[in-house]
What does this fold into?
Amino acid sequence: MKIEWAFYQNGDETEEVFYEYLDKDLYESKYQEHLYCISAECNAMIKFTHRKNGVKFFSTWNGQGDLHDTECPYYLQNKGDVERNKILGLIESAPITDEHIINTILNKSKNLKTKEKKKVPNRRLTTRRTLQGEQSSKPEVIDNGNINEKGSSQIKIFSLDSKHITPDYVGYRKCVFGKIRHVYFNETDDYVYLNLDNDQYKVSVYLPHAFYADPEKTTKSALETFLRIVKHDLRANNELIIICVGMIRFKGNQQGVNVHVINPSHLLINDAKYYEIITNNSIPQNPYNY
It folds into this structure.
């Protein structure tokens, strides 16, 4: 698995770094020992290599492979396919309630509205790891789903920016957020693509026929109204940020990845729910610091 992004932190200075923009001199003068895994729940340190033949890549710092969170694909980088498939199988088959998913999305929306630009994530301030992979302190990871005694799943649903999605995340359930670039509705095969911001891969929120197969949740006619409003706002240059929860899978042609969303309650656009958008015939302006 190729790590393509890393998170830079040095004091209050933060940055998302793509390895192609680095070289050996810049890395050693600024970024060395200050790069971390891009996954928000990880604190494993990342190192950059620039070989004499021009090849560049990120990798996990020696001895820190197990410091990735188990919900991060790079935790499994050296574990082998058997353990990887076992863990992914547990994630996909685990029971999870709509309440848990909805709370995850609402909390992510709240966090995006309140955070400041370039704010250092709490995980970088409260957890420090040495180069030998030891941990001096570890804060409790708080699940976005606000799990309670009413039976919500114990599975944590971590969030992921669409621009950081790579094929390594296939098989994981994530709360994905990102800017909508384009909408495509295949009326013949009854599916929708909401194409998201990602410069490296084709990434889409995928709404299959199952999204509106249950008329108690929504109908094809309601979905068409929803898509008409989304398209109108995109043409009007309204910045649309979607937050949704779904399993990440390969596209049918293997040329990109989809986030499968099968329930209208499992998405927000600019903090507006699916039926709020349809009822109001409009989408609010982007309320997020994103």
Notes: The chain has two domains: 5-92, 97-280. The longest strand covers residues 173-186. Residues 117-153 have pLDDT under 50 and may be disordered.
